[in-house]
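Known limitations

Files may contain more than one protein. Parsers should not assume a single record per file. Below, a two-record file is shown to illustrate correct handling: read the sequence, read the token line, then continue until end of file.
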Amino acid sequence: MKSNVSKWMIAWTVALLFVFAAVESFAIPMPTVQVGIEDIEGPAQMSSALQVLLLLTVLALAPSILIMMTSFSRIIIVLAFLRQAMGTQQTPPTQILIGLGLFLTLFVMAPVWTEINDNALKPYLSEEISQWDALKKAEVPLRKFMLRQTREKDLALFVNMDDGRKPEAVGEVGMQALIPAFIISELKTAFQIGFLIYIPFLILDMVVASILLSMGMLMLPPILISLPFKLMLFVMVDGWYLTVGSLMKSFS
């Protein structure tokens, strides 16, 4: 047995030596990666470097742009209020709520994305307009959407706090004032919808708590009794249809 093992070891050793010899004979080149800092020879290289830096910055801020400048914030806040009002803890899971919020955001923002694609992205990729012109054209539909969802009171708050030139029309409001005004308007609208969602579930919790108190069952948590009734009420009235439908209509 030992002799067989030793023979196998000798055979494998010889085979490995042949493989190493073949690799050395072929002289396979290995790629090298170098990282260094060189002097910029002209303004064109500086412009390219700044463009790459700007692109990386936009990619890093893409999640914030998606959340703050679209309908995603209102949708996800309302869905979170709905789950908390039902008292189902982590059902539906957070991943499902975020996924539903993303797809609803794509549905709401579809006209805006289409206009940006037709007026800014396609001409830029076809080299018909410059990068700066593409950004300006892409800003127009996004600005229209945010202005429709922004309250005048919130917009006036940031316009009045701006020390620069006051705009004479709504279309002249800068993005630095429009974006925060849009965000706080979305927060207020989301909280209003969440309050309306809370009311029926709160009434049901109060009724169950009053019944348990009158029966002297003080040690029994009311949530254990009200949860099945809240789920039954939510299913009977087709709650997801009403909630999502109300959210979609709130953007019209």
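...continuing to the second record:
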Amino acid sequence: MTNKTLSVSAINNGTVIDHIPSGYALRIIHLFRFLHDKNKITVGLNLPSKRLGLKDLIKIENRMLTDLEASEIAIFAPEATINIVNDFEVIKKIETKLPTNIANIFHCLNTKCITHKEQTESVFYVKEQGKQVKLICHYCEKSFERDQIKRSARY
């Protein structure tokens, strides 16, 4: 008889983001400002995974991610599974897929880009090259790897 225990407790209502590549959970929490909602967040880091070897996990109570937010998270966790939970039951599974573009979340790192001089929304095109995800600024056309980008203070 095998005795299994859960590493992370279940949530009553909210969102579970599973199969995040190891090391990306805290970055996702920071970039998408999940702490600003003041909801209870449970984070699992370096958990065992058959698919990834090691994975991270985020559980956000009383916060339901939209399909758009799920696609934005796919920039950092393309193989993530996102489950919406109600009364301890999964009521919706959101399949993540990379968006074609992303607006008003990140700022361009090119200090000569017009987005630093004028009040204009940031827009990046998302390109996947093998296992690498790149974001290309709509305005200056500079390309950045996903690990380089930062959250914009404006949004």
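Parsers that stop after the first record will miss the second one. For reference, the second record is described as follows. Residues 74 and 98 are 5 Å apart (CA to CA).
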